[in-house]
Amino acid sequence: MWWGDREIGWVGSFARHYELGPIALAVVKRNVPVDAQLVVRHGPGGEDGFIEIAAAQEEKVPAT
Hints:
Helix content: under 10%
Shape: globular
Number of strands: 6
Number of helices: 0
Strand order of the largest sheet: 1-2
Oligomer: single chain
Radius of gyration: 13 Å
Number of domains: 1
Largest sheet: 2 strands, antiparallel
C-alpha cells in the first residue's frame, strides 16, 4: 500500500466480491487519513515497472 511516495502498509489477502468486484484486506498505518488516495503496487518493479491499482479504506478498528 502506498500513499504518495510513502509505503504505508501491505495487502494480506484478496478476493472477488460478487457485487463489489476486487476486494482486499490490508494492514495500514493508523496515521493515514481514511480519505487518503492510496494505491497498491503490483509487479516486479525495476525496468518492468509496477501496475498501480487505486485503493480506498474502510475503517474497521477506530483509532483511539
